[in-house]
Each structure stands twice: as structure tokens, then as C-alpha cells.
## 1
Amino acid sequence: MTLTTRISLSAAAVLMPLAAVAQEATETAEAAAPGFDQIGPYIMTTLLFLIGGFLVFWMAAGFAMLEAGLVRSKNTATQLTKNIALFSIASLMYWLVGFNLMYPGDGWIVAGYLGTLFSPAVLEPVGLAADAAALDYASVASDFFFQLMFCATTASIVSGTLAERIKLWPFLVFVVVLTGFIYPIEASWQWGGGWLSELGFSDFAGSTLVHAAGGFAALAGAIVLGARVGKFGKDGRVVPIPGSNLPLATLGTFILWLGWFGFNGGSQLAAGTVGDITDVGRIFANTNMAASAGAVAALILSQVSFGKIDLTMVLNGALAGLVSITAGPLDPSLFGALWIGAIGGVIVVYTIPLLDKLKIDDVVGAIPVHLIAGFWGTMAVPFYTEGTSFVTQFIGFASIGIFVFVVSMVVWLILKAVMGLRVSEEAEIAGLDVSELGMEAYPEFTRG
């Protein structure tokens, strides 16, 4: 036997046990690491929350653009300030108390409870190990992020209604109360496992809990605040006050339309099975159908009613169609989504003039779009969703409406007494951009 052969045999004798140890370690690691079947549902549902959440976040831009386009140019910067401020305040308040009010778990009572004052939950540590046994159905952080977006949306609805005559700081104080307390409490009644959930009330993505709630808060504010200077003549005549930038309002509507796919689709709350992800696709299709039908219905009806097509009616018709399908976007057929959304468009064309007759000044039409179409969408659920009833749906809508309206009214009245709600008539005529901010969105143009 040569020296080379002896060296080779010696090396093999050393390496073979090492190779066996490495193989055993690899097999042990493979056995311990969970496969995609174990962690896949967690990953996919977390992604659904994150993608849905940032789509709903993009709706904040939609509200800002819609409102900036529907107010006069002298009030544009103020509306933009309100929208970025209200979203930021909602983020802080939902973390501070809102999340624990909305999801109190076993300690739930009718009015909710504060729970842990700071921090909604212990978020996952950085680099959480992929131990399937330790994972919930989705990341806590992603769930918190997604639910926060709905809270902020509720406040965005109020902003447009009260535009062009409300002081900035009292409005922001109301946002603190709305996002930290009012919305989380009423939402806990359904989504936090509260009494409406036990009663059998159904609101898939928030036609009542988000949209009608925002509409009721806006209605209370509009009543306390009063109409803009010059909106209603002494003879009762309604004086149209057109917006400054319809291209911007149209862009805002398309942004909201896009964000609504996350709003409704993400509310499936699961994407870990073939059935769940198929349902998300169905929700997307129904959401788009309802929006389209609402826009077309408003387009045709405005032509018939007014002799000309009204673009603002068409924009609000699309949004009303979206609100209408939000309570039940999964169960209807495409035709079902079509007629539900179309009725939303009809509601807008008839109720916007009705508010004018009632001397309620809603600058962007948010009350018809979110409150009244939200009522219709909530009541349409039993047509397609088994186990629901019209009586239960009405009880749910009425209870949330009364709670939000009464509490909001009290808060608005307190703010009016303590801080004052309206700017002066002189400031309103000059524009809130100058009186509230000392700056203008379009400084090169003549204010009008």
C-alpha cells in the first residue's frame, strides 16, 4: 500500500463521521423548521393586512384630493392641513387607547374599556422565529396597522362636510375624541365581539361602523356649526357654491376607488386557504361593480333630473356605490353588486338636494354618500347573506347612529362653548387659508 493510499484512507476515516454528523444535523433542522403548510397561512394573512392597510392609507390621499377640489381655492390649504393632521392624530389615539377599546377581549362590556392605557399589545419581537406553534393567524402589528386605517377613515368623512367655516383647532380636538373613543367604542360592539355581534348584526367592512358613523358625526357637526355665509338666501333659495378644482376632485375619487379594494378585500381577514383568497377576488370584483353602477346611475339620473350631467353627482355616485356594497361585498353575485351600487348612486342624486332643503350645508356631500348610502348598504345585507335579518340590521344601524350622533353633538356643543367653532364672517369671506394658516394653496391666483 502506497503512502498516498494510506493518506487517502486516513482522511476518509476522519471525514466520513463528520459527514454523518452534518447530515444528521441537516435532517434535524429540516424536521424542526416548519414548512409552508404550517407558516403559509400566517404569512399570507399578514400580507393581506399589510397590502390592504396601505391601500386604505392611500384613501387618505383620496379624501384630501376630493375635498381640496370641492372647496373654493381660498380654503384649499386648510383642507389639506386638516387631512394630514387628522390621520396623524388618529394614529396616535388608536395606539393610545382606541385599539384596546375596540378589542377588549374577555373583559368586554357595552361601553368598552380602556385596557392597557399605552400600547395596544406587545408587538412581535424583531426577527420573530418561525415557530409555527407560537404564531397566531397573523402578525399583531399588521392587524393593528390595518384596523388603524379604518379609524382614520371615519375622521376623514367628517372633514369635508364641515369645510370652509370651522376653526382648525376645535376640529382637531373633536378628531381626538372621535378616533380615541367614539369610533373604537361603537366598533367594539360588532368587531370586538360585543353585543351587536352576539345579536347577529352583520357589517363586513363598515357601511355602518365606519361610514355611517362618520356621517352621523358630520351631521351633528353641521347642525351645530350652521351653513356657510351666502349658502342660503333670505328667501330660502339655495345658492350653489362650486368647487375650485374638479380634476383634483376626480383624481381623489379614483384614489378612493382604488383604496376601497383594500378596505373591502382586506376585511376578509384571512388569505391562508384557497377559499379565503378566492373570496378576496370575489370581493374585489363586487366592489368594482358597485362603484361602476353607482357612477352610471348618478350620471343617467342627473341628466334626467337636471337636464345636464353633473360631474360631482357622478363622483359621489361612485363613492355611494362603494359605501353601499361595503356591508356585504362577499355574498352577492355580480348582478347583485350592480343593483346595490346603482341604488347608492340614486340615493346621492336625490338626497344632496334634500339636505339643501333642510338647510344642512354639507360641502362635499359626505352625509348622503356615507350615512344614507351606508344605511342602504347595511339593510341590503339580508338579501344575500344567510343568518341575517332586516330587524337586526336596523337595530345595529340605529344603535350606532344614536350613540355616535348624541355623543358627537355633546362634544361639538362643548367645543362651541369653550373654544368656539366658527371663524368670523370676515375670516370666512377672506378664506380660511389666510385666517387660519396665513398662507394660500394658490397664491398666484385671485382668491374666489
## 2
Amino acid sequence: MTPEQFIEANVKAELIKLGFSTSVASLATREAIRYYRKQPASRRGKMIEDCLNQAKIVARLTTKR
């Protein structure tokens, strides 16, 4: 499993567990992977947490009206 696959699987599962729809979770997961690709480094062992936080922000913005 590549790091991007790991991020995709875990971030999407967490967002769905938090009650976001599958489509919103997919969109936010794509943004989390884009965030991962742009970041040169993160705090040790915190990249998945940073990606999840970015995905949560996108998911909240997507569902608010």
C-alpha cells in the first residue's frame, strides 16, 4: 500500500464515520491527497493527522450553506 492509498483509505473512512456523505468524503479525500503531495515534510508521524484536518476543513466547507 502506497502512502497515498493509505491516506485515501483512512481519511475517507474517518470522514464517513463522522457522518459526511460518501461524495463529500471523496471530494475531501482528494483534497487531502493534494495536500500530501504539496507538503515537503510534516512533523514526525503527523502527516496523516495533517491530511485528515485538511480534509475535515474541506468537508465542512462543502456541506455548509
